[in-house]
Amino acid sequence: MSDKDGQPTGQRSHPATYELAPLREADFTTREPAARQALEDRMNLYFGTKLEMFPFTEGEDTPNWFHAFYEATIEERFPDDQDLRNLIGDYRAWFTRTLWTYVVLKRIYAGLLMAWIALAVFAAPWAPQVKANPWISLALAIAWLVAGVGVYVLTSFLTLTYGYTQRVHVQSADLSRVIVQRTRDLQNIYKELKAKIDLDETEYGDDGELWGEESARLIRLLMWIAKRVEYIEKFIQTEMWRVRRQRLWADFGGAGLTIALAMVAAALVIWTPTPVALRGPAFANVPLGSLGIKLITAVAYVFIAICSFRFWRTPNDLARTQLSTDSWIRFGNLDLDNVIGEQVRRDKARLVEYRTLNRSLGAPAHRH
Length: 368
Prior knowledge:
There is one protein chain. By secondary structure, this protein is mainly alpha-helical. The chain folds into two domains: 66-332, no CATH class; 335-368. Helices cover 73% and strands 0% of the residues. The chain is built from twelve helices and no strands. It is elongated. The relative contact order is 0.12. The model is unreliable at 1-15 and 276-288 (pLDDT under 50).
């Protein structure tokens, strides 16, 4: 079950390699009475549980988030897939933590670049040696700035952004692998049960009553397994909605940090007293003067902050592209409605064949 915020219980602080125990066909086709009854009880959690139409209580202050009671409903009906849901919840929580870490680190890197620029403008460590020629001092400052921007691009874009997307790729591929494993296991069992409905004719022979009961049980199992796949999809959809919501909050948080960083840095530049290196004779004939240099620096700060937010963002559909859902078995792949319809059609056709055969032999047709 989940807590009030929909957080999976027993969640790991950080996901390692995802692992799931494989499903066995023998667990679904067993003839052992206790095992069969346990399976029937689990199926009844879906087929026999009524949906809570009023998911709130009189004494509560605020209702639960929709995703919280929706996921709790899924967990109540399909406890067998709780292990997979825990892994999906781990992935969502890891994705959110990693995204916020990336957002904060980008602003830290931008702040370091701004500090680097401040060194070029205010510290001017080379100024005492070149006081006689301010143009050389300006050229060195510009070179310092270019070097800082180059280091920033390499660290922020190539190292930070590329490293972040690579971690998401690896973690997404690992989660996708276990989703494929579980859904393929369910699909394989689904196919075996579908074939077993007709194959049981040789086992039950003329005992139509037992064969009918077993066929009804297998049809119910088919429907239940298909619904397990469907509700795995619905759980993933809910978790990915939560990822997108967290991405929206990360955008707001990143924008707020960007504005605050740009305003504070620009204000510090504008209101910081002009250093001796910029007031001395070395800069007496420099165009724009010290105030102009400070204004250009402040504009550069704002530009860096905007670029860090606007142009080096991760895409909204990063999780979608990295999870490779094309390889998953989906509820639609099982073709449940046509499978049941085809089974009914075959049974009716077989019944007509038996009646026709009995008439040709002069025997009365059996009533079913």
